[in-house]
Amino acid sequence: MSKNYETVIGLEVHVELATKTKIFCGCSTAFGGAPNTHTCPVCTGMPGSLPVLNKQVVEYAVAVGLATNCTITQYSKFDRKNYFYPDNPQNYQISQLYLPICRNGSVEIETSAGKKNVRIHEIHMEEDAGKLVHDEWEDVSIVDFNRSGVPLIEIVSEPDMRSAEEVIAYLETLRQTIQYLGASDCKLNEGSMRADVNLSVREAGSAQFGTRTEMKNLNSFKAITHAIEGERERQIELLEMGRSVIQETRRWDDNKESSYAMRSKEDAQDYRYFPEPDLVPVIVSDEWIEEIRSRQPELRPQKLERYKKEYDIPEYDAKILTGSKRMADLFEAATAICQKPKKVSNWLMVETMRLLKENEMDVDDLSFSPEHLAKLIELTDAQVINSSVAKEVFEAVFREDADPEAYVEEKGLKMVNDEGALQSVIAQVIADNPQSVADYRGGKEKAIGFLVGQTMKAMKGKADPAMVNRILKEQLQNS
Amino acid sequence: MSLMSMTAVELGRKIKNREVTAEEAARAALEAIHAKEGQIGSFVTVEEEKALARAKEVQKGIDDGTFAGPLAGVPVAVKDNMCTKGILTTCSSKILGNFVPAYTAEAVKRLEAAGAVILGKTNMDEFAMGSTTETSAFQATKNPWNTAHVPGGSSGGSCAAVAAEECPYALGSDTGGSIRQPSAFCGVTGIKPTYGTVSRYGLIAYGSSLDQIGPIAKDVSDCAAVLEIIAAYDKKDSTSVKREDLKFTDALLDDVKGMKIGIPRDYFGEGIDPEVKEAVLAAAKTLEEKGASVEEFDLGLVKYAIPAYYVIACAEASSNLARFDGVKYGYRTQHYEGLHNMYKKSRSEGFGAEVKRRIMLGSFVLSSGYYDAYYLKALRVKALIKKAFDDAFAKYDVILGPAAPTTAPKLGESLSDPIKMYLGDIYTVSVNLAGLPGISLPCGMDSKGLPIGMQLIGDCFKEKNIIRAAYAFEQTRSYRHSPLSGAAQQKNGECRDRAAQQKNEERRDSAAQRKNGECRDRAAQQKNEECRDSAAQEGGKCDE
Fold first, then answer.
1. Domain extent listing, chain A
2. CATH fold for domain A419-478
3. Considering CB atoms only, which of A48, A92, A270 is closest to B203?
4. B101–A51 CB contact, under 8 Å
5. Which of A211, B292, B308, B389 could be bridged to B378 by S-S, CB 3.0 to 4.6 A?
6. For the structural domain made of B3-253+266-284+398-411+427-502, what CATH number should be given?
7. Do the Cβ atoms of A272 and B235 come within 8 Å?
8. Is the pLDDT score of A56 beyond 90?
9. Which residue, among A278, A283, A284, A285, would best test binding to B if mutated, counting the most B CBs under 10 Å from its CB?
10. Does B329 touch chain A (CB under 8 A)?
11. Per-residue pLDDT reduced to its tens digit, B52-101
12. Is the pLDDT of residue B540 over 70?
């Protein structure tokens, strides 16, 4: 590569809002119902049906807008985007083009290079489409309208990102913010958060943007990272060969780890947008904005500061704890019960993170209750179980949200505090391991570790290590 | 006297007084339909068994007091663009030729809750696009006054059915004159209410921002009574307006003293049939003689109304009709290869020529590069037309003009020249663009023996003004039954006697009191509606 290239990236992020009902009708938004069971005349595009806006959608959109420093459009409108496709029952999508609900925002992201702002061009509200299922055996396509009319917001950034790392940081920040607001669960793998990547390259220092492509169907951070790297290389290669980049939409193939052209700008559809005549303008008063603002929960930056101050948690730990709403909620709830923030933090930072990694799980998949974590901490502190047993119990909590008390009882894991029993077990261990005893007495302090281990083994791990240490030393000195 | 030659209110009273049962009324209607449909063709679907079963059920409800309203047990015909659960709803189109809705339109539901018995669904121009009912995919409805002539459109089936006395009243819909123009051509009365007064839920949309459902009947009293039943705020229709002044029958007062009536000079210029002009001006004279002050004025912008209307209505229609694609319901072509071929063939075979013309026109004006020049400009014209009416209503209570420039043309004369057909909507479309209420009622006959209709236009939410003026005018003449009514020779005196009884000082006073307070209250309510209208907000400065 002879020249230095800069990557320019802007994102269009679709987020499914966590409303109970759809954006324009009263049907449930629950995921996974039998096909076409969450439907009515409105969301199946029956003749004569009319949309009625779900107020909660506006509240969530405004909440996200406020949290991303947007200006709220107080006189906002819906428009129709016209295109034919069978998953779109009216053959138009109700969206916002001319007067989107939020504009001109920004979010601060942090990467290894430091902090920077990514500007948000707009956030608009729209409806999701249904799902097509292609039955290759029968050679037919069938359509499920359960998702048709599920509310979405589309967050459109300015072309402010320059690397995959920045893109991931931006998406993480959006996800944290939206999860904290409770506006969506933002799961990429389930499609409740979807990102389209607009990417172009230009020679470093150039003031003009290159021709961009848009990439769709990116279902994980991994896919996004690979797609960005691949597309950057593809475009640079074209330019290096003296060819030009064609403005087109490309689809990412997760199996092949590469993208292919879907349609070029020439084939781009004319959506013939026009104001939706079946809906009245959305008027967001100053009072309404203030009401939404006053209900905003504590967001990540404030939470992070509070954890450091209130709980004396180090910055690094506080970042991980506040990295997702699920984690922060667990931390706060467990701490509220046991009043031991450091210990709760420790379990979450060490054992929880280890098990997540081992099981290739996401933080949002955590299913154990804060009560059980708090109880585990209490059992350990009360010396009912020792710390190694505690790790075993925690795995059961993590796995199946087991009740630690019942689990310890059932498995017989209580620490044995019977000194008489321990005295005789230790006497036996000393008798069985003359070499180690000799080593210890010969000045090899470490040899006691082996004897402790043998004792714990004999006690099936249930002995209090401190007591084992004390008795061992006593017996070794006395005999 | 045949039950069908009575007005709906008269028949309702007889049913209430146990002189006639709901079943007898339904049978009389069905017999009339059997006898006349061959000549008229006003129905797409007649639900004989359902209607009789329903009539029996309604009679029970009348007997036990469930249905106590003035129209309980009275049969009705419904235009075929309103969804009726379990009853074929076709919009007179092949593409919906087999469509049976799973739900009932709100306006029809309200009629049913008042004890109406639905006879069937009336013919119309396909998807309400047309002015003659000839664009129906099934049949051309004939004018009961002369079957060589059209009944007008698009609610031609409903108006012809009322004029032929196949039913006492009917529901129509009006996007650019589709209730008022055929009412005029058929010698009956029809009201297009203020936009937002009757729920559009279940009305298969043509031009969503212009469509309104309204009543068609023999006289003003019937229309007021029906409108009172169907007008209500409906949360299922976001454009529905909360109103409290929905007691339209309170305005049935034979008194126009002091009422200010404006006559737009621009409505009597080039293109108007001299006989129509004469009859409408004579009606103005009559109202003047009854104590109204009548004044000519220049409304302005009249020539821009038709292009603006066709741009906006077709733009909305091109999108509204996109859902008819052969995927979910309705017609699907027999042989196709792949999705796009299926779309193309289903829609090419399912839609008629006029519908295709308007879909193409609408798609064109919304296309990138043309949107500003056509659609946005039309929205600006719409806003200016609304302003011209606002200025007029600052001076007048009611505007009086013709409903159409001519009487009913002959069958087959109109479709060959669509532009000429579109120009026939000149007096009606601006009322829809401005969202105003309008009533069309008979005011004479031309030398060919065809009815002439006049139109009274009111300010937003001022249906009572036009009902009152129309009612007062109606008292000066008797209802003329069409030759096909089977009651043409009968005297009409009876119908009118009742009206005299309704003259009631109390009502007049309360109506007058209400008039003053209304303006300001309504203005606040209208705020949202007006925002919709003011295209200028979006498109920047107006051209003029």
1. 5-288, 298-411, 419-478
2. Arc Repressor Mutant, subunit A (1.10.10)
3. A48
4. no
5. B308
6. 3.90.1300.10
7. no
8. yes
9. A278
10. yes
11. 999 999 999 999 999 999 999 999 999 999 999 999 999 999 999 999 99
12. no
